């Protein structure tokens, strides 16, 4: 990629995570994380899961147990874990295109794909950006399909009517993985606005996700490692080094963290990690507010670069700001920008490298599809972590490089 790598002593994260404090790790009384977070979101009940993917598996298993329908429609541009979760449940995946230059699913294609075999549609709020799910719900309702909101990257975002994302569909889920804000290193939250469905989700989880001691011990060590290393110095080793190794090997999928194992662990989250999350959760509302403020500032600076389109929320919605998602004017411009910035320790990278049908390793799970807008989005997308450690000189370098790439 770059001819002469600079010496880097600092590494900015690709998304603004909520840093843990040592005191979070100490034993001590704390209310359950799910019960503490539910009123902050304005929902009755939340269910803690071992990952966002596990939450989706629990949702799909619950719905498919009560239905003969076997198809799940997802946006063509979303996390590969979504495709793996659908396959894990023995269901068939269909991918829907996006509207041009937008994360909004294309309603015409969605209506074409949807039929009486459709179990669920899974719209995604990527990078904290809120999509309008009203058209999705209308199409789903026409065929008796469920809507599962993938809010893995948007915990705390709100729809235009003030409802938290995840609570407007039939089921919603969030991720508490490292890199997605509030984290247990791996974790997830699941909710349904229908009390009976919520109870059924709970039963499914109890049946398919038992306590696993060794898995939990491993996650505890990983969470402690995250707490120790999440900062501009530690991230250089924990995040930057493997990223640069992948880039040196010409492996953008590895660099973006888009390659996932087939196996989806399903287990309960232990008490210690729950308590760490519950302690950190007390700082979460302030964190959401401060990242919103810095996100707005970053956005107004980036707006001054001609040709750059900053992906926005659906009208009236209030997203969250772990990162800023940009569309460059062309795939070539995005490639030029990434060649100069990715791996430079500035928190600039690609959200997902491909649309789902274009990942080699998913080819047996995702059929080829005509999704030109989503493919164009994937080729032009660049993300910038909204990190509190970004300095003016870092931002200047990013802006100069983006401006040059767009010319
Ligand atoms: C991360 C992610 C998931 C899966 O969440 P995990 O907690 O990592 O299992 C699902 N959907 C999207 C859009 C994601 O970004």
What would you say this structure looks like, in words?
The chain is an alpha/beta fold. It has a domain at 22-208: 3-Layer(aba) Sandwich (Aspartate Aminotransferase, domain 2). 41% of the residues lie in helices and 11% in strands. It is built from 15 helices and eleven strands. The structure holds pyridoxal-5'-phosphate (PLP).
Task: Sum this structure up briefly.
The protein is about 40% helix and about 10% strand. It has helices at about 20-25, 35-40, 50-65, 80-90, 105-115, 135-145, 195-210, 215-230, 235-250, 250-255, 270-280, 285-300, 330-340, 370-380, 390-405, and strands at about 45-50, 70-75, 90-95, 120, 145-150, 170-175, 190, 310, 325, 350, 380-385.
What is the CA-CA span between the terminal residues? 20 Å
Structural class: alpha/beta
Bound molecules: pyridoxal-5'-phosphate
Mean of all residue-level pLDDT scores: 96
Poorly predicted residue ranges: 1-5
Strand order of the largest sheet: 1-7-6-5-4-2-3
Using the 3D structure, state the CATH architecture of one domain: 3-Layer(aba) Sandwich
Global outline: globular
Helix content: 40-55%
CATH topology of one domain: Aspartate Aminotransferase, domain 2
CATH top level of one domain is: Alpha Beta
Q: Quick one: CATH superfamily of one domain?
A: Type I PLP-dependent aspartate aminotransferase-like (Major domain)
Compressed to H and E, one letter per element, the order equals HHEHEHEHEHEEEHHHHHHEEHEHEH
Which sheet architecture does the biggest sheet show? 7 strands, mixed
- Alpha carbon gyration radius: 20 Å
Please tally the β strands and state the result: 11
Strand content: 5-15%
Annotation field: number of helices: 15
